[in-house]
Amino acid sequence: MAKSFQPGSCFMNEVELVERIRRLAGGSTRLVLGIGDDCAIFRPKPGEDLLFTTDQMIEDVHFRATHKPEAIGERALARSLSDIAAMGGEPRFCLVALATPENSEKWIEAFYLGLLRLAKRTGTALAGGDLARSVTNKTSCDVMMCGAVKRGRALRRDGARHGDAIYVSGRLGKAWDRKIEPRLGLGQSLVGRATSCIDLSDGLSMDLYRLCKASGVAAEIDRVPVVRGATVMRALHGGEDYELLFTLPARARTPEGTSRIGTIVRGKPGSMMFEGRPLEPRGYDHFK
Fold this sequence. Notes:
288 residues; alpha+beta; 4-stranded mixed β-sheet; 13 strands; 27% strand; globular
């Protein structure tokens, strides 16, 4: 670990900047080779399945230029960690591709400081990635995440069955730019218990629809836990909550800190009811 690392201490070329990031990132016991070569080398444990996911963060879509770079870096990693949590996995390493405007060395270093604070707290190694100049003068990044779960034990979207109870972690309708807390511990505790699971990134209505379609079932929602100041419509369709939506057998004990919101029922796959009325999947869609 480079204790002398100071954001924006001097102008740097790409080689110098990558070296600073490498020193800040440190190492990992299973990362045989990290930043500095053409590829990273990771050695998994026997008997585990590796999980891979990737998420983009694009200026004026997922964040504003006025937001602090440390917060953007942390959020970029947190979004991918939420996917790992949804499958009951433990984080292993990430790769980060980042494109920024010219003369943004100070911004880049601060971005990585924020990302690496969360990486260290969650046991995620930064294994490498790519740096580039943005031709649009906008910042964008892509975080590829690797996690792991015991072989054959990953939580999936396609296991919900008639009669299962539907749960969410936390309250919904949060502000889109608030801090994300990936539900890694909860996801891991649901392995072997939950019949299905998905993280709420595009809104409850959209992500419940996806879970129901994958499982070939329908759903009836009785209530939605809403954060103070938000509306039920925001909680249903707003997105960016990054909580876990999951199903358990009807008689299972409610996990601490979660809320039962409905029941899986027979019906047209993907159809949903809320308080006795049809619920349309109207969450966030990049292509609408």
